Amino acid sequence: MISVIDDDGPFREGMDSLLRARGYTVRTFASAAEFLRSPHLDETSCVITDVKMPGIGGLELQTRLRNDGRTVPIIFITAFPEESARERALRDGAVRFLVKPSDASILIRCVEEALAQRNAPHRNPP
Q1: What value, to the nearest 5°, has the Cα angle with vertex 94 and ends 72 and 6?
Q2: Is residue 126 part of a domain?
């Protein structure tokens, strides 16, 4: 399941339609807090989230998930591409950091990459 977290309703609806048309199961959330309270955390295989949202922003969400031991791949997509936010997101393990509007084919490739990363066998260091 892909969880789309964004305070922009039309964006959430568009993402939902795009991803469902590609055969993905999707849940949308208007806020990070709504997502964190949902019963769908363990079902989520990929998160697509905005950086700037009221309350808990995407970067804080990434930190909370990591601190809770959740290794779900995250794709950030934002209309406010600050270099410091991009650097932090990628340093902390984000799969991609995209700028709105983003081409649908690029977004789908990023989702495929995130899901492949999620399903890759984990190796222990030597």
Answers
A1: 80
A2: no
Q: Rounded CA gap, 98 and 11, in Å?
A: 14
What is the C-alpha to C-alpha distance for residues 61 and 123, in angstroms, rounded to an integer?
26
Dihedral in degrees, nearest 10, Cα atoms 50, 82, 92, 69: -30
State the residue range of the domain holding 41. Answer: 2-119
Q: How many domains does the chain have?
A: 1
Cite the beta strand spans of 33-73 per DSSP E.
46-49
- Burial state string for 6-20 with b = 16 or more CB within 10 A and e = fewer than 16: bbeeebbeebbebbe
pLDDT by residue for the chain (126 residues), tens digit each?
Answer: 999 999 999 999 999 999 999 999 999 999 999 999 999 899 999 999 999 999 999 999 999 999 999 989 999 999 888 899 999 999 999 999 999 888 899 999 999 999 988 765 544 344
Residue 89: strand, helix, or coil: helix
CATH of the domain at 108: 3.40.50.2300
| 125 within some domain | no
Contact present, 100 and 79 (Cβ < 8 Å): yes
